[in-house]
Amino acid sequence: MGTPHESRDDQMLDVLDQLYEEYPDTTISLHFSTRLELLIAVMLSAQCTDERVNKVTADLFEKYHTAEDYATVDQAELAEDINSITYYNNKSKWIVSACQTIVEEHDGEVPDTMDELTALTGVGRKTANVVLQHGHDIVEGIVVDTHVQRLSRRLGLTEEQTPEKIEADLMGVVPEDDWQEFTHLLISHGRAVCTAQNPDCADCRLEAICPSSQVDHDVDLASGEAW
């Protein structure tokens, strides 16, 4: 048990096949109805649970509707509106600044290129990938959040450590048609089974091919530390 395939390509295909069976309906869990709402929600979700973000945006999206609304609001007021979100002061500043750029340079519309999105304050490649995929139906990369970062290393799919390098490495082994779903599958599995602190290896359908399995391995490959 806990023996990965010799080929990383075979390992990846087995992981995908099994997770597609386990989570056939997985998708993004943030609530939004416009591209702007998606951008705001993803910005708020950094180091914060999607559940918490959805609770906050239920009221936030009733109050603010356009990029100009966010661009002109007093930053302290916006911070108060999102004060149950982690790092709400910084995030309120980033949202105001990003929306000012959207108004001034993009006619109030969320841009649809990686370069333009990552030029916005507070928007990194992960956020831009989510907005492109779910707002513009453009898939040009793999979203690497904490779940993808953890599971891809535990499963022996990459040895890279930073999100940027993990994404570049995974793009060479994940079939391009699966780039978007790959993220959702790993997020679902990371939440349900392969959690950060107490993964349920005994009941994990990937245990037989996982080189980090607690059943017969001593090291968590996500951290490089002993279990």
TrEMBL record:
> HhH-GPD domain spans which residues?
44-192
Return the InterPro entries for the record: DNA_glycosylase (IPR011257), HhH-GPD_domain (IPR003265), HhH_base_excis_C (IPR023170), HhH_motif (IPR000445), Nth (IPR005759)
Family assignment from sequence similarity:
Belongs to the Nth/MutY family.
Task of the protein: DNA repair enzyme that has both DNA N-glycosylase activity and AP-lyase activity. The DNA N-glycosylase activity releases various damaged pyrimidines from DNA by cleaving the N-glycosidic bond, leaving an AP (apurinic/apyrimidinic) site. The AP-lyase activity cleaves the phosphodiester bond 3' to the AP site by a beta-elimination, leaving a 3'-terminal unsaturated sugar and a product with a terminal 5'-phosphate.
Q: From the Swiss-Prot or TrEMBL record, what is one GO molecular function term?
A: DNA binding
Q: Which organism is it from?
A: Salinirubrum litoreum
Q: Where does [4Fe-4S] cluster bind?
A: 194, 201, 204, 210
Q: Does the keyword Iron apply?
A: yes
- Quote the cofactor binding remark: Binds 1 [4Fe-4S] cluster.
Q: What class of enzyme is it?
A: lyase
Q: Name one GO biological process term.
A: DNA repair
User: What is the name attached to this protein's record?
Assistant: Endonuclease III
Task: Kindly give the SUPFAM superfamilies that the UniProt entry links to this protein.
Answer: DNA-glycosylase
Cofactors, names only: [4Fe-4S] cluster
Please list the reactions this protein catalyses. 2'-deoxyribonucleotide-(2'-deoxyribose 5'-phosphate)-2'-deoxyribonucleotide-DNA = a 3'-end 2'-deoxyribonucleotide-(2,3-dehydro-2,3-deoxyribose 5'-phosphate)-DNA + a 5'-end 5'-phospho-2'-deoxyribonucleoside-DNA + H(+); Hydrolyzes mismatched double-stranded DNA and polynucleotides, releasing free thymine
User: What HAMAP family does the entry give?
Assistant: Nth (MF_00942)
Q: Indicate whether rRNA processing appears among the record's keywords.
A: no
Q: What Pfam families would the database entry show?
A: HHH, HhH-GPD
UniProt entry keywords in alphabetical sequence: 4Fe-4S, DNA damage, DNA repair, DNA-binding, Endonuclease, Glycosidase, Hydrolase, Iron, Iron-sulfur, Lyase, Metal-binding, Nuclease
In short, the EC number is: 4.2.99.18
